[in-house]
Design a protein that fits this description.
Strand order of the largest sheet: 1-2-3-5-4
Helix content: 25-40%
Order of helices and strands: EEHEEEHHHHH
Radius of gyration: 16 Å
Distance between the termini: 39 Å
Number of domains: 2
Structural class: alpha/beta
Shape: globular
Low-confidence stretches: none
Mean pLDDT: 93
Length: 181
């Protein structure tokens, strides 16, 4: 699979499997590489170093995934032309949100801050605001609700692409958690 390096504002990022023969991409971009570069241009410079290798292939079965061992972002080759990726590669930005969270421990620290002494689950107005950031993906807790980190990753991608899709208070919260405030 073709391997390339993309340099974004002085940070070199490795990408595997990009633009293989028959590669699927959004019609508004000349290549998968251009689509990736467009998304990376939206990422705050202080977060670029958190991004692991990007692998394009058949894993996950659809969409994208953030993998810890070995650290990489996986993008299914068909996700490039998904409706939500046609303007910007939203799936990649969502997965970068997980990488930023991993580097900053943003969600874990926030979860602890919102969990009262003696309670097992986070609560309070700020936690409710955070959990209201809509996530429709498949990464779920046992009770069927989204895994806690999904709200951050989704909010992060929304903040970078279409901030009006979340409230001003949610924008402020994601900026704070991502240390952009």
């Amino acid at each position: 699979m073709p391997d390339i390096e993309i340099v974004e504002r002085g940070v070199t990022l490795a990408v595997r499997g990009v633009d293989e023969p028959g590669a699927i991409r959004a019609a508004s971009f000349p290549s998968q590489q251009a689509q990736i570069e467009d998304a990376l241009a939206l990422v705050p410079v202080q977060h670029l170093g958190a991004i692991p290798e990007i692998w394009i292939g058949n894993r996950p079965a659809s969409g994208g995934g953030f993998y810890r061992n070995p650290p990489h972002i996986g993008l299914n080759r068909r996700t490039f032309d998904a409706e939500h990726n046609r303007r910007h590669l939203f799936t990649l930005l969502h997965e970068i949100g997980h990488a930023v969270d991993r580097q900053l421990h943003a969600v874990t620290q926030f979860q602890h801050r919102c969990t009262a002494s003696g309670d097992s689950e986070p609560s309070g107005a700020e936690w409710t605001l955070y959990r209201a950031i809509a996530y429709g993906g498949r990464n779920r807790r046992a009770d069927g609700t989204p895994a806690y980190g999904e709200h951050f990753a989704e909010g992060y991608a929304i903040l970078l692409t279409r901030p009006s899709r979340i409230t001003t208070a949610q924008q402020r919260l994601i900026r704070t958690l991502a240390r952009l405030a």
